[in-house]
Amino acid sequence: MAYSVLASLPPPLLVHRKEALVRALNRFPVCISRGRQSSLAFVAKAMGESSESSTSLSIVKSVQNVWSDPEDRFGLVGLGFAAIVALWASTNLITIIDKLPLIPGVFEFIGILYSWWFIYRYLLFKPNREELLQIIKGSVSAVFLSDAPAN
């Protein structure tokens, strides 16, 4: 499935000459055409399906398959009702906790302390930043490449 996107982008603030901008954009595989003087327009085409759309379509197909079986309809309706009740209960619980006079301030203080700890632990020194980068890469590979082992 092919999609086409037409975008009109203003030129970057740090580019002094438009010729330099057009030469820089010529390296990309897009069609550039001049629009108004203050903007550039380009068209980009993507071929194939994205993983997000195929995932959402597979979820819809699985729900349709479950709905087509009369024995599973009751379970599907019950699961939907349980999800709505859980959402309603969690919303009310958060509202009740927020109305307590001391709890929101304590949670805010805990959040500030955790933020400072995270900055000190992972962002302040270069070896720790590299460790964080390895943790993120391992998590991303574990999520998107379920066949490959995480680091």
Short summary of the structure?
With 151 residues, the protein is α+β, with helices and mostly antiparallel strands. It contains 5 helices and 3 strands; from the N terminus they run E-H-E-E-H-H-H-H.
Protein architecture, described:
- Helix content is about 65%, strand content about 15%.
- Strands 1-3-2 form a 3-stranded antiparallel β-sheet, with no helix packed on it.
- Helix 2 packs across helix 3 (about 70-100).
- It has 5 helices and 3 strands; from the N terminus they run E-H-E-E-H-H-H-H.
- The model is unreliable at about 1-10 and about 30-40 (pLDDT under 50).
- It is of the alpha+beta class.
- It has helices at about 20-25, 50-70, 70-100, 105-125, 125-145, and strands at about 1-10, 30-35, 40-45.
Strand content bin = 5-15%
Strands of the largest sheet, in order across it? 1-3-2
Going by helix content, strand content and strand pairing, the class is alpha+beta
Rg for CA atoms: 25 Å
**Number of distinct helices:** 5
Portion of residues in helices?
Answer: 55-70%
Average pLDDT score: 74
Given as residue ranges, the uncertain stretches (5+ residues, pLDDT < 50) are: 1-8, 29-39
How would a textbook summarize the main sheet?
3 strands, antiparallel
State the total count of DSSP E strands.
3
What gap, in angstroms, lies between the N and C termini? 35 Å
Principal-axes geometry comes out as flat
